[in-house]
Design a protein that fits this description.
The structure is a single chain. This protein is α+β, with helices and mostly antiparallel strands. The protein contains one helix and twelve strands; from the N terminus they run H-E-E-E-E-E-E-E-E-E-E-E-E. Helices cover about 20% and strands about 45% of the residues.
Length: about 180
């Protein structure tokens, strides 16, 4: 390549070498940028440790604060929306009749009290939400509040939140940060 036949070929080869060098520098700059971006994401995610998030789940942990917040995915309007709460032994401990609601995301909160108003102990509780459509009860999906215990960064730079009672969730699975 350094023994061209004509001057124009020599200049063309130098231009090609210059282009390759420029692309190599651009590639290195982009790699540095990506690394910096991933580090920044990990730092921001670590700030979520100890905070509450809503994720798709039927079970959540009732802590000392005595509150579990949730959202019901109501696919169509109903006159009979019902939330039942079960303890870890499968015994129903509370029930809330939410009545008539229109389709959409319906927020709710449970204060940790049983049907008689007694505060229940800390632990895992399961929520069963049903809507009555034409006399048929249909089970609905819920998103419940959970505490973020820790953050993990995968080998490929993906960030996952380790959530109490809900396992490992990606950032895209978080519905809401509370």
């Amino acid at each position: 390549p350094l023994d061209p036949q004509e001057n124009s070929e020599f200049v063309a080869q130098l231009a090609q070498f210059s282009s390759v060098e420029g692309l190599d520098k651009l590639n290195n700059t982009m790699n540095d940028f990506v690394g910096s971006f991933q580090s920044n994401q990990a730092l921001q995610a670590s700030a979520m440790v100890g905070r509450f998030v809503k994720v798709d789940s039927e079970t959540s942990y009732l802590g000392n604060d005595g509150l579990i917040a949730g959202t019901i995915d109501l696919t169509q309007s109903t006159n009979d929306l019902k939330v039942k709460v079960f303890n870890s032994d499968g015994e129903q401990v509370a029930e809330e009749m939410m009545g008539k609601n229109t389709a959409g995301e319906i927020p709710f909160a449970w204060d940790g009290a049983d049907g008689a108003g007694n505060q229940l102990p800390a632990g895992f509780y399961t929520f069963e939400v049903t809507a009555n459509y034409g006399g048929n009860p249909v089970r609905l999906n819920t998103a419940l509040s959970h505490n973020v215990d820790s953050v993990s960064v995968g080998a490929n730079g993906t960030i996952s939140l380790n959530i109490a009672g809900a396992g490992t969730k990606s950032m895209s699975e978080i519905r809401e940060i509370l």
